């Protein structure tokens, strides 16, 4: 399960890029076929963004999908037992 910290980080990056392009939440939402309220939830980190939706957002904001993950290496992400790679090898 994605961490709250990751959701918040991606939301901040999303908001920063949208504002840089001078787009409204409604404009980005329209391109993705969703309501602007959903963009609000993404930007505040309240909702996890699916891989498919993140792809749509990357296209709408004219960035590579990896753009949303830049800066995560310095962020401490909580990991649960199900996130461990060792448990998959078992």
Given as residue ranges, the uncertain stretches (5+ residues, pLDDT < 50) are 81-90
Kindly report the average pLDDT value.
86
Q: Kindly report the oligomeric state of this protein.
A: single chain
For the secondary structure, the number of strands is 0
Q: Strand-and-helix sequence, N→C? A: HHHHH
C-alpha end-to-end distance: 20 Å
Radius of gyration: 14 Å
| Estimated share of beta-strand residues | under 5%
Question: Considering DSSP H and I runs of 4 or more, what fraction of the residues is helical?
Answer: 40-55%
Structural class given helices, strands, pairing? mainly alpha
Number of helices: 5
Overall spatial form: globular
Which sheet architecture does the biggest sheet show?
A: none
What does this structure look like?
The protein is an all-alpha fold. Helix content is 54%, strand content 0%. It has helices spanning 4-20, 25-32, 36-44, 51-60, 85-89. α1 packs across α3 (36-44) and α2 crosses α3 (36-44). The chain is globular and about 35 Å long. The two termini are 20 Å apart.
């Amino acid at each position: 399960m994605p961490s709250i910290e990751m959701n918040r980080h991606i939301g901040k990056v999303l908001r920063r890029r949208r504002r840089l392009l001078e787009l409204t939440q409604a404009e980005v939402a329209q391109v993705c076929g969703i309501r602007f309220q959903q963009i609000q939830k993404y930007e505040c980190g309240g909702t996890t963004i699916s891989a498919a939706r993140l792809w749509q957002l990357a296209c709408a904001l004219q960035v590579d999908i990896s753009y949303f993950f830049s800066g995560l290496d310095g962020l401490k992400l909580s990991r649960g037992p199900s996130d461990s790679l060792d448990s998959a090898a078992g």
